[in-house]
Amino acid sequence: MRNFLINLTDNKKDIFSGHINYGGVNSQGDKISFTNYYMELNGVPFFGISGEFHFSRYHRMFWEDEIIKMKMCGINIIATYIFWIHHEEEQGVFDWSDNKNLRYFIELCSKHGLYAIIRIGPFCHGECRNGGLPDWLFGRPFEIRSNDEEYLYYVRRLYNEIGNQVKGLFYKDGGPIIGTQIENEYMHSAAPWEMTTGISNEWVTGGRDGDSHMKKLKQLAIEAGIDTPIYTCTAWGGAAAPVDEMLPLWGGYAFWPWIFYGDVEEHPVTPEYIFRDYHNSSKPKCYNFEPQYDPGRYPYACCEMGGGMNVSYNYRFVVPGESVPAMSIIKTAGGCNFIGYYMFHGGLNPKGKKNTYLNEHSTPKISYDYQAPLGEFGQVRESYKNLKLQHYFYKDFEKELCPMKTVLPRDTDSMDPKDLDELRYAVRINGESGFVFINNYQDHMELKEQKDFNIHLRLETENIKIPENGTISLGKGASCILPFNFDMGGVLLKYSTTQLITVSEHNNEIYYFFFIPDGMHGEYCFSGETCHYQVENGYVENVGDKVVIHVKEDCTSIITFTAANGKKINICTLKKEDAANLWKAKIWGSERIIITKANVLATEDMIKLECRGTENIEFSIFPDYKIPSIKGAEVIDRSSDGIFTKYQFKIPKTNSNLNINKVQKNKAIIRVSQELFTGVKEVMLKIDYNGDVGYAY
Questions:
Q1: 29: phi > 0 → left, psi -120 to 50 → alpha, else beta; which?
Q2: Which tens digits make up the pLDDT trace of 127-160?
Q3: 69: phi then psi, degrees, rounded to nearest 5
Q4: Domain holding 439: CATH number?
């Protein structure tokens, strides 16, 4: 047995406002503002969850479905690069049509209630050709990425075009655009001029003029009508970040294809998965976070937490699905109340007019899948499902979570990322209540289970031991968030070894949904004075003055309390598989919980289900609703399953008919019959391939 102790008696967080020049009011009177710790919407803490999706790397026919998928995962802000080369590949000829229709993309974000942040460059990177700069800028008699007036002439023209495209869609107009990112990694990174690759190997400059250039670009953006409550900039790596005018944004990547040049053969273990306190004036710097400002005076916000990573020719790898939710837990535990993923949705590089390919030469010519939570063809991945559980929690409990202070058990700067024996954990706390964050994932290491431990929380007025009796374990690669002293509508949960997902109300009853993290046994601890309760699929143990309720792991368990005010409180603990397939949306006038392996795309009056390779779909919903009509499937069964109503749908089988003709040793022609496309949304061709490089035309 291993015992861990954390002192939580010094838990007051100094939160203040009025010193930050970010924010604004829209045409409906809604107000965005900032404290030194978090963003506020109408004076209420707002937990931002941003996901990157490049509209010009995806077919506009599917934009709406993919935006809905992002929303279904709890994303509330979509960030997108506007690659200059995609829109002005030929000098003076701008293209905002078809898949480059920025305005239509932003309108779809607005239609589905999502905010937007536009990353307007001019330099973007994003593994795009020249970092997104048009070829025709090469060799001009002025410095790129500088305050040279000749360069700013072309930037001004670009910004004017962008401003005209999204006119009327800014937050002040009642639109969704709340933020504008100026430049990218200015004074930190660059990109190759692709037309020189393999010849003189010249690079775009990393920048010259520091904060003055960033402020000049912001001025040009405002003059072009790009007027948003928030202007942002990337701050890592010593990049220029004028925090008096721009919100500095951070991130973290654990997979580094850019290091594989020369004699580099092995990827190092990174310190990304060690807990830090990112919002602490008394400790202003730590790994990958060296701000040129007092970190306690500005929110720690992220825009580039690795949602995956793009492979390169020299480094090909698989990003584990558990790595992304672990990154989310590390950042949130560290005081981040505004997380952002790059990428959240993969895509495809468009073909060029002047140059056939618009990729960076070391990366795939077309694919920009990025192994993101949503793939280049909209595939839902394991990371998506695990992130969904976190995102629902962050948003449903943002008022409680955002003000909570980060507390670490010790100074973690000396922690060795190769040390898999020491338990990695942190706490966020406000008063006597909070959440314990535990991480058991580490990149580039053979992982192992964290076995037989407990955590002692030393509070101002009491001590809490998790668990009260015995020990807990956490599976290899797993990460989790455990509540303590959590008020559930008048019932105080002392702690649980289950993770909170979401809360819903129906018929004047409150329903809290939890799941049991991998490797743990589920239990809930209450004081012995807790009001009347009933337990379904569990048992009760009295431990001293505590009541501990153990729940089963192989089925849904329900604990029902009747609070002092007569209101019923229901705690529903789901199987891990059911939790991974849980969806939440407002449909047909009510907030509903859905459990299905199919991908759910829900709007206020319709549910679309996406599935692949199956004829039968199980679909459970709470509360039930008499579904008005069903298209594309037949209902073969309807039954009750606890609080859920379960439907079984059967969809018509589509027979594949492929004709494969091998024309030479390394080339084959695949012909697909037209009938294969009947009654399906898309046809996906999966090729098992061992080799160096593959091409498909």
A1: left
A2: 999 999 999 999 999 999 999 999 999 999 999 9
A3: -60, -40
A4: 2.102.20.10
